[in-house]
Design a protein that fits this description.
Blueprint lengths: L4 E6 L2 E6 L10 H15 L6 E6 L10 H6 L16 H11 L4 E5 L2 E3 L1 H7 L3 E4 L4 E3 L13 H4 L6 H10 L3 E2 H7 L4 E2 L3 H13 L3 H13 L5 H15 L3 H12 L8
Parallel strand pairs: 2-3, 3-4, 4-6, 5-7, 6-9
Antiparallel strand pairs: 1-2, 7-8
Helix pairs in contact: 1-3, 3-4, 9-10
């Protein structure tokens, strides 16, 4: 796609890679804009049913490029919100929640600060057991401000988040699963993420997109609203072409042929 992010698509799965390997995929202004551009491009790409997000080289993402911060170079301002409710720094994480298909992050090497928040925007995270993770911002006199607070409470305990944020201590991929940050621990996180994405891509794209819409919205709803939302999404799926194809394929024990 450019010198910061690459995208390849095969069998309905988008393989998205951060490609600033010489800097451990650290976040400079060009990287911020490239990540957002990748997410927005995939949202408009017909036929994509799942995406895998990873980093080339030794690490997933080392966090903010402090050199660009010291130099005064910036990707935008905190107060500007060009992406609805998010500024540029937040949207590198929340763009993956906005993507209508599931995103699986494959994490290896270091995943610090903003890198952890980007990975946290994914639906699923596969982490190498020896990966090094940290909510790093307090080390630099900052707070996490790239969307982490909006997603972490959904799967990490409040006291755990507070301890990790206040101390910025490192934790391993194995501990990440115990704490709630990792869905799976695997010595080859990218291969495992691709495997999961391919399984998702074999399901009805209509059902998967509807499920993600519900996951993204129910956190702010009361029980009555959730039940109404479930029913509304199901009503659109029942006896649709893809739903009937899923049934027929299951009954005939064959691979389904869905329309995107």
């Amino acid at each position: 796609m450019n010198d910061r992010v690459s995208i390849s698509i095969e069998n309905h799965v988008a393989d998205v890679r951060l490609t600033r390997a010489d800097k451990m995929n650290a976040l400079d202004p060009d990287m911020f804009h490239a990540i957002i551009a990748a997410g927005r491009e995939l949202a408009e790409t017909k036929g994509v049913r799942a995406a895998v997000l990873s980093g080339e080289g030794r690490s997933f993402c080392a966090g903010l490029d402090m050199g660009s911060m010291v130099s005064g170079t910036t990707a935008g301002t905190i107060d500007d919100r060009p992406y609805g409710n998010a500024n540029v720094f937040q949207y590198v994480s929340t763009v993956w929640r906005d993507l209508p298909v599931p995103v699986i992050a494959a994490i290896h090497g270091v995943c610090f600060g903003g890198g952890l928040q980007i990975a946290s925007g994914a639906d699923i995270r596969v982490v190498a057991p020896d990966a090094r993770l940290s909510i790093m911002e307090a080390k630099w006199g900052l707070i996490p401000d790239m969307g982490g607070y909006s997603v972490w409470p959904g799967y990490v305990r409040d006291d755990v988040l507070r301890e990790l944020t206040y101390t910025n201590r490192e934790f391993s991929g194995e501990e990440a699963q115990q704490l709630g940050f990792a869905t799976h621990v695997d010595s080859d996180p990218h291969a495992r993420a691709i495997q999961i994405a391919r399984t998702i891509a074999d399901r009805s794209p209509d059902a998967i997109r509807a499920a993600k819409r519900l996951f993204n919205s129910v956190g702010d709803m009361d029980t009555d609203a959730i039940l109404q939302a479930e029913a509304a999404e199901q009503k659109k799926l029942v006896q649709s072409a893809n739903q009937m194809e899923a049934v027929m394929a299951g009954m005939e024990k064959r691979a389904a042929k869905f329309a995107d």
